[in-house]
Design a protein that fits this description.
alpha+beta; eight-stranded antiparallel beta sheet; four-stranded antiparallel beta sheet; about 15% helix; globular; iron ion binding; Phytanoyl-CoA dioxygenase family protein; 2-oxoglutarate-dependent dioxygenase activity; oxidoreductase; Phytyl_CoA_dOase-like
């Protein structure tokens, strides 16, 4: 029996999230202007509720299934690392592509709370899906995610009009390795990519003295389960070890504004047909998720 590939469905499959028109979504969930202004200034926006308790529990149940290496849909992952660090005392589970495998993780792409905020933070643009991720740190021996900029891994697409949304499935605090940001670092130049589960301080050698001093102002993003943080693709961020008695599980949705194009002639994600350089990122694997209602003015993101 062939395991069904849910990427063939460019619409929700369950009733986990309400199905609303663009107008209803915007009216119900749009951010106040001061939140958008904060994102423009600092490069992130945190403590945004995206999920209720039942939705969190549904996603955690699917996560337990997906983390099994013998899951029958395993071949549909773009990447699957039961421990990306390779160190059993610093475990980082990291995967991409689970939206193709289980229905709740498929449908969370169409969560209206997420979509309207993504559109606003992209300058009231139409939103396309890029790819998803899971980041899980077990209790007592969870590993790090080294300081990095997301776009350093995404230069095969452009221009830079991307957005990351990180959502907690467990309460995330400093003691269990919550996300940390360097406010304002989205205005820095693009840095070389780092080894994701490697040396926490590997990025420092690329920085000047002023940029290094900015780490003194880093912000720990503590979130209850079901709450999210959004950040700019150039914002420097990372997370430290989990030595607590609690797991720290999260999923990530990466999107870009409609009109983003391929910068590479090779495979962009494992198993996904190549998109020729200069061609738009669209189609089955990069579905259009949301367009703002008519009358909403497109805004400059700078």
């Amino acid at each position: 029996m062939t395991y069904p590939d849910l990427s063939r469905h460019s619409e929700p499959l369950t009733d986990l999230f309400p199905r609303l028109s663009a107008e209803e979504t915007w009216d119900r969930y749009a951010l106040p202007v001061e939140d958008v202004a904060f994102f423009r200034k600092e490069g992130y926006l945190s403590n945004v509720k995206l999920l209720d308790e039942d939705q969190v529990e549904r996603l955690k149940a699917e996560l337990d299934e997906l983390m099994r290496p013998d899951h029958p849909g395993h071949h549909l992952f773009y990447e699957f690392h039961s421990n990306e660090s390779g160190d059993p005392d610093a475990v980082l589970f990291h995967s991409l592509g689970h939206w193709r495998i289980t229905p709740a993780f498929h449908d969370v792409l169409w969560n209206p709370r997420f979509l309207v905020i993504a559109s606003q933070l992209l300058g009231n643009r139409s939103v396309r899906f890029w790819h998803d991720q899971l980041f899980c740190k077990p209790a007592r021996h969870g590993g790090v995610v080294a300081w990095h900029q997301d776009y350093s891994y995404w230069t095969r697409t452009g221009p830079i009009q991307h957005l990351t949304c990180w959502t907690a499935l467990d309460d995330a605090h400093q003691d269990n390795g919550c996300l940390q940001y360097i406010p304002g670092s989205h205005r820095w130049n693009l840095l070389d990519k780092t080894t994701l589960a490697g040396d926490m301080d590997g990025l420092y050698e690329q920085l000047d003295a002023e940029q290094r001093r900015a780490f003194d102002r880093r912000v720990a993003v503590e979130l209850p389960a079901g709450y999210a943080t959004f950040h700019h693709p150039l914002l420097v961020h990372g997370s430290y070890h989990n030595r607590s008695e609690r797991a720290r599980r999260a999923f990530v949705l990466n999107v870009f504004a409609d009109g983003t194009r391929s910068n590479a002639g090779e495979e962009l994600l494992k198993g996904v047909p190549a998109v020729a350089p200069g061609e738009p990122m669209e189609g089955r694997f990069f579905p259009l998720l949301f367009s703002p209602p008519q009358g909403v003015r497109r805004e400059d993101q700078s």
